[in-house]
Amino acid sequence: MPNKERDDDERERCVTGIDAIDHILNGGIPRGNTVLISGSVGTGKTSICIEFLIRGALEGENSLYLSVTEPTEKLLENVIPFDFFDERLTKQGKLQFIDLPKTYEKLGIDKEDMDFDQTRLLADTIVQVVEDQKIRRLVLDSVTSVCYRIKDQERIRDFLLRLGTELSAKGCTSLLVSEIRSSDEGYSQWGVEEAIADGVIVTGNLERRGDLLRTLQVVKMRGTTHSRAKYVLDLTTSGVLLVPLLKGGSVATGG
Amino acid sequence: MASVSVIADVADKLASLPDSSAVAMRLKSEQYFDTIQGMLDRFARKKDLEVVYVTTTIPSQSIISALEVLEIPMDHIWFVDCISQIMMSQEKRHPHAIIVESPTMLENIMLKVEFVLRKHPGRNALVILDSINSLAIHNNTKILSEFLHILVNNLRSRGAYTIIFSMQEYETEEIRNMLVLVSDETIEVGE
């Protein structure tokens, strides 16, 4: 009978470098996992992803950010000025940024509704970059925007499966940003993303007696035991910090 | 005028404690600034501690002004100010003051303390919670106990001192029980 704890030990980890998240995940994300970072606007998804990449690059892991919704220059202007960021990482190519709309152009994907071949071409192109650049950490921000152009659930499933499988085979740990509304019940726009991902980390806003707290919760992570509790997070220049959500003040008990 | 006896009493009692102690500091209102002076000017400076002062009672700028009068240097003193925002205070913000929107945001207090400690790795720290009485105005006993339990144990594991102010005039039975639960020692100022 498999020993769960031993399984945890045996699976190589991608140590995110965000101490609290590594603690929640018993040492980090299992290497090669595809993880959905799901949440509504302003909950810290992009900051978590950027820190994940910078921390990786600082440890010598080539890291790639694929930006769909925002040009890289604008993104970098608005991102938290992390104390630990070192400009040399981008100059040395350890930390790379690609604007996906430019890739669409290069690939001749000009339609708003990608067909099957274009979807495959896009997945293969990303995988090729990962292989060529020996990328170990990848962020796709956001997978929701890509899926909007694919539209069809079957093609979305094919795209995500192909991407996830290939990246995992190359030892690349991926975070896919999923944009949802706070009122949504699931963790993704199309429902397919959360089913295919190896892990789901949900960020959110919790209103408690008029205070708005940013929260984070690991809902699913294949290949490791993990906490499923809700944490409160803060986005600081020292990185993402987390503390447990105090239960005594939960909405259910009236605070 | 400062009471030398209170200042010395506070400094001496704190100096006799083992490292990473969690202390309930019971004081009267008139002993407030002398206690702060004994703590910051005598004890923390002598021990070369990084101080995180969580204020939920008086805006940080008022305490900073008092420290300036007392000529206590601010280099190693940081404020987590949980009261200025809800008071809609227009006062200028000192670069060593970090704002928490409200004393009800207990998790954010923990996060800001963590942030300051991370900024100064390798230095021993003293975290002051001023005060449990004002925190009890804004929070129920259940969540406040949980907060203190997590905060104090976290600080203890990092080797930091914790001092929790309790103003004797405003103490309740619940507050006293809470302090007994989380602190290693109780210091009665001036006794």
Q: Briefly, what is this?
A:
Chain A has 255 residues and is an alpha/beta fold. Chain A is built from ten helices and eleven strands.
Spans of chain A with pLDDT under 50 lasting ≥5 residues? Answer: 1-5, 251-255
Distance between the termini of chain A: 44 Å
Number of helices of chain A: 10
Number of helical stretches of at least 4 residues of chain B: 7
Please bin the fraction of helical residues of chain A: 25-40%
Helices and strands, with pairings:
The complex is a heterodimer of chains A (255) and B (191).
Chain A: H1 4-10, E1 13-14, H2 19-24, E2 29-30, E3 34-39, H3 45-58, E4 62-67, H4 72-78, H5 88-91, E5 95-99, H6 100-107, H7 116-132, E6 135-141, H8 143-150, H9 153-169, E7 173-179, H10 192-196, E8 199-208, E9 211-221, E10 230-236, E11 239-244
Parallel strand pairs in A: 3-7, 3-8, 4-5, 4-6, 6-7
Antiparallel strand pairs in A: 1-2, 8-9, 9-10, 10-11
Helix pairs in contact in A: 7-9
Chain B: H1 4-15, E1 22-27, H2 32-47, E2 50-55, H3 60-69, E3 77-81, E4 97-99, H4 106-119, E5 125-130, H5 132-138, H6 141-157, E6 161-167, H7 173-182, E7 185-188
Parallel strand pairs in B: 1-6, 1-7, 2-3, 2-5, 3-4, 5-6
